[in-house]
TrEMBL record, chain A:
Transmembrane segments: none annotated. GO terms for molecular function: ATP binding; ATP hydrolysis activity. This is ATP-binding protein. The keyword Lipid biosynthesis does not apply. Keywords: ATP-binding, Cell membrane, Membrane, Nucleotide-binding, Translocase, Transport. PANTHER family: ABC TRANSPORTER ATP-BINDING PROTEIN, ABC TRANSPORTER ATP-BINDING PROTEIN NATA. SUPFAM superfamilies: P-loop containing nucleoside triphosphate hydrolases (SSF52540). Its main location: membrane. It comes from Aerophobetes bacterium. The keyword Metal-binding does not apply. It comes from the Bacteria. It is a peripheral membrane protein. Residues 24-254 form the ABC transporter domain.
TrEMBL record, chain B:
It is a multi-pass membrane protein. It is found in: Cell membrane; Membrane. Keywords: Cell membrane, Membrane, Transmembrane, Transmembrane helix, Transport. This is Transport permease protein. It comes from Aerophobetes bacterium.
Amino acid sequence: MDKYKLAPEFGGERKTTQEDKIAIKVSGLTKYYGDFLALDRINFKVEKGQIFGFLGPNGAGKTTTIRILTGILIPDKGKAEIMGIDVTKDPIGAKKIMGVVPEVCNVYTDLSAWENIILAGKLYRVRKGERQKRAKQLLQKFNLIKIKDEKTKKLSKGMRQRLILAMSLIHDPEILFLDEPTSGLDVKSTHMIRKILQELKLKGKTIFLTTHNIEEANLICDKVAIINRGKIVAFDTPERLKSAFKRTQSIEVSFDRMPSDIKWVEDIPHIDRYQILGDKLRLYTPDPDIVIRELTKYTEKNKLRFVSLSTLGPSLEDVFVKLTEEKETKL
Amino acid sequence: MKNSHPFSNFFYSLSGSLVIMEKDARIYYIKPPVIIFGILFPLFFLLAFALGRKVSSFILVPGMVSMSLFFTSSSVGPLITPWERTARTYERLLTTPISLFSLILGDAMAGFIFGILISLIPLFLGFTFFNVKVAHPFCLIGNMLLSSLCFSSLGVALSSSATEAPSQAMMLSSLVRFPLIFISGIFIPLNNLPNWGKIIATISPLTYTTDLLRFSLYDDGFYPIFLDLLMLVIFSILFFGLALKLHKKNLIKAI
């Protein structure tokens, strides 16, 4: 039976290629605003079912990238494909399979939560029965069902953001684009959104999110890309990125009383930089052993006591700071 | 996944215009102040002109209907996009599977229907209080449909300026719309205008609406009917094309 296999076009099974696993493919994407180069030939691929974090300082090109990927802006050069659909050539086709939460957006405040989500369903042409069923499910999931008939002008920022996310899921999209989804939200809403993103990933959905919250990216992203001045400066898993920056280890120490003058820190050998974080002192070093010995000597000499002392590996934030700083120094 | 067929996307996107129209109607048009303004404004304007003077129904009724068509069809259109920009709902709308063409068409359709419905009121007032009879019913229907489309397209074109503030859009809208009512043969019929007045009147779409109304109701028009209709079609295409071009141009500034 297996001797003669049918070709895919005649109903035969098609082999899964590497390309089939790709949800977002960006090649040579370039965008100018007048003379200002906002995106400089960026390339990356996002696999299906991944949560992809797109990080970068303000004005680095994150929102421009997301706006091109969501079919709002047209690139000057390069190509962006969503599930194999060229966004520039077929924006409507690509928009059908994506849900989008822009960075600064709002719901219609004259409409109720229910009317807003139903309107979103109509904009995506979800059939009436399905639309109402999904709207109800989503409002329940986002804990908004009790206030569904209230005008959204009365809702808190967290509730509105949850509603916007619910609206972006009304057509059960394959890919979700989120531009700073948890920015300025209360802890409860942030946790709820993160949990739902994890659930969506388990269902095989692809999530592309930009965030300023490096810890958030570290916690939920499978892969991250760091963009700076329109160029991708790093692209890997959070753990691999951190391990590539092992030199950036740090020691966090707090004393029973903080010394008023901490210039002595600069005399400790192998200290790259230091930071005062509230009642703690963080020292960045490639050699924690020497630094700990020096700190012990200092406490004995000045009759101080350690309240806490811990060594920390490089955080994703350190990687981010290092990469964006290095780039700026070179420029 | 392959790129979808352009035709299927076109109809898919076009059906989105109806959703936009419904959204505009619910959020912007079906509001008591908007409806009251739509009914009362042309009425008061004309009464201010007619009170204390002997003005025939030949001037009054077509004037009232044409002003109503003009002001209601183009009343809310200039404000929709600036409102959406200020309220931060515009970018999310652009991410839905609706083309810019369909978005503008939806906005224009909302103004079109609102204009026709409200303008029926002064028309019926004319029938009731001034004993006006319709001389050419098809011409009247065609005129109302075309004029409403033309003026709602003008409204949408005015909404596409780069400004985010609705108050600025309102200023621009008033600046464009108000002078037109004085040069369009509403208060003084075209054949009574001096030559320079007749020349200026040709640049206003409202001239052709008023002229066609006088023909439809009193069988007395200044221009040939086909010219009135043709000019309204030309102005409609011009305003809609302008709206599309300006919206595209100002898209980056708008988001």
